[in-house]
Amino acid sequence: MKRIPIAAAALILVALGLGLLDLGLLDLGTPDRERFRGMVSPRLQSDKSSDTAPTIQAAGPTYVGRQTCLECHRENHRLHSHHGHATTFRSTKDPEVARRFAGKSYDAGEPFGTYTYHVDDQGLFVRIPDKFGDRPFRLEYALGHRSMTLISLLPDLQSDQDTPRSDRDTVALEHRVSWMASEGQLGKTPGQHDGPPQTAAELFGHRHEGRIMHRCVYCHVTTGEIVGQQIVGLTPNVNCEKCHGSASEHVRQARTMKTPPPFSVGRVDWDAESELQLCGDCHRMPRDITRKQLREYPDLLARFQPVGLLRSECFVQSGGSLKCTTCHNPHQSIDETTETEHEQNCIACHDETTPSTETSRKHTVCPVSPTTGCIACHMPALKLDGLGDGFHDHWIRVRDDK
């Protein structure tokens, strides 16, 4: 029998495969079909269409937006619509932002003066009449769900003469005044310095630059990067793909397969530590605070929930089973979860009716109130300066003041 050269045999097999594909007799999924076609050399491909040069498809999934997720995940989409994550980043053109500020004034005292707020078709701006007359200062973005803090992106300035150092140098100006939901009025933005401003722009607020500036935007959007004084590729708010990742490949599979593979955060070995790293990327980990703060644990750290949870015996002794999602549905607003529902999560471990086992012996049943009052006693809401009393301390413990 006459042998066919290896190269010729390969070409015959490829041609046969392509023919079967075109006839529909070789049943490959869409991605496998495209990969099979991609095995053909550019020369062979050009034989079929000599006018078209071969192209290389870009690899990797892309972002599709939360409206695409609505096709299958209607309930999670509905829950997320009422979640604080859904309104973490807005243009000041948003009517809700304008409603909080426009027509109001705030006396910040000397050397800052009195701010007056106005709105036009470009959004919100503020004036300090006794210092700059009618000269406006633009406020571009509002960060926050109920309470709102305003920021503007500006060229970095060398001096009060407003001379740009470079078009590439940018600072974020965090406005000195915020809308405080807990007070229902304007108030001083937490963390503002009271020292004399170094530039005229700093009369309007505290400047941030570098990593802190970029993190301000990163943690309030799904996608977006500061380039110059613009935010490029902006997808505002913390939407599905902020946590789940870019979903184009998942969507493609879901639309073409009867049983598409699951798509969520993490891997099969996802554990409490992995989840804390994900949530703590924005809600803060110990690496994001000073050692002094971690040691002394001021009330302000109630804002940084993973820091508190990591100190809790409930977490330490759980063997990795206590996670953020043990108590929180990440799609659902905290306002839609009752205190009783939260307490049931506590009682699930600290239950006096559960027969003693090797696991349950490690848990302590509360001697004071074994079935109610867990949250108010062991992780109360703390009143923080300028932030109200909406932050629960996640260092779960028997408190010294009880």
UniProtKB/TrEMBL annotation:
InterPro entries per the UniProt record, alphabetical: Multihaem_cyt_sf, Multiheme_Cytochr_ET, Paired_CXXCH_1
Keywords: Signal
Residue stretches making up the Doubled CXXCH motif domain: 323-353
Pfam family name, one: Paired_CXXCH_1
Protein name: Doubled CXXCH motif (Paired_CXXCH_1)
Species the sequence originates in: Stieleria maiorica
Organism taxonomic ancestry: Bacteria, Pseudomonadati, Planctomycetota, Planctomycetia, Pirellulales
